[in-house]
Amino acid sequence: MNRKNKVIQFAASLRLMAENILWKKEKPLDIHKNIDEIKQLHREYQLQKIELVSLNDKILIAKKEAEIAYEKFHNIYDFAPTGYFTFTIDGEITSLNISGARLLGYERNELINKNIQDFIAEESLPILKKFLIEVFTGDSKINCELMIAPQNSLPVFVMIEGVLNKYGEKCLATVIDITDRKKAEGRIIEREKNTERLYTLLRRITDNMPDMLWAKDLNNRYIFANKAMCEKLLNTKDTNEPVGRNDMFFAKRERATNPENQNWHTFGEICSASEEAVIKSGKTEHFEEFGNIKNQFLFLDVYKSPLFDEEGNIIGTVGAGRDVTKEKEIEKELLESEELYRKLVSTSPDAINMTDLDGNITFVSPKSLELFGYESNEHIIGCSIINWIAPENREKGIDNFNHVISNGFPLDKEYL
Asked: What does the pLDDT look like over 371-386, one tens digit per residue?
């Protein structure tokens, strides 16, 4: 017997049962009842019949909609990219979707009544047990991250978020594969470690250099300064203090320590002007910057360059300064000495000449010009000194010149 015949037979038996019940309850028809009352009862019957038919139609529609919604729910549940599980307090799997089964590497029907702990990496088991305890003893969502060991596959990092169902007997959980995120986090952590190592290396290199090194933003505020810069110019407690501050901050602070001495600290203003020039030109510039630091004169030989970002935009400046104060003092003394020497030579009654190692004249004193009858050295510089010696004495002159080159002093000879 097919299903349709079974339904027909069931309906017939139901009608027979209803007629028997109605027959037992029916009373003899009172023909003396008012005809209007009978009509009213008949009308009421017809209304209720119509209502029942309408209600039945609505029930059928609602049933159809429920079936459609149920099918949609199961499609969403089964084919969702997120794994859905239902666990008991012991970790037994009572239901799961297709994505959940794929995470564990099995068919769904193979996992029902299995324990989730059997698929968790050993090092993550304590995390899972703690998670289940917290879910079943709490009243809010609990989440954790652990590692599962799927069948015939590499370990997978997952995040589980679970909550009790309304009866408090099972854990409803979502399981998301976060392996890619974990790998990305690992790469980020490794990159951060490499960056930290590089920064530490850069800091050590720059802090062990005698030259002053720094970098500033477009507002002339420091974003980096090495140890030499902090000690020799800014007078800071460490290399972090300059960050976010400009030269004038430190200049004013230093001047405030000795307000009665106007020459105590005169460095500051000139630095900002040179950085603005570099930003404007967009290329490396050479400067000489000088002034007093703690009442001591400081002369810096400075190179400054624009600081570019990845897109070639100027975002600040970088600079390197070398303390050349001693060199400048020596240079000044040398110039003064040379000036004194020139004065002595120019006023000397002796004829004084200078040559290179080949005997070519590089300098003649005014007395030499007078002695040899020249008004200027235009026709003398570059000529051989031997040409000034009489032909008969040139051999002696050459011997004497070679002796000077070899021994540093002349032979005691006189010749024209």
From this structure: 777 778 777 888 887 8
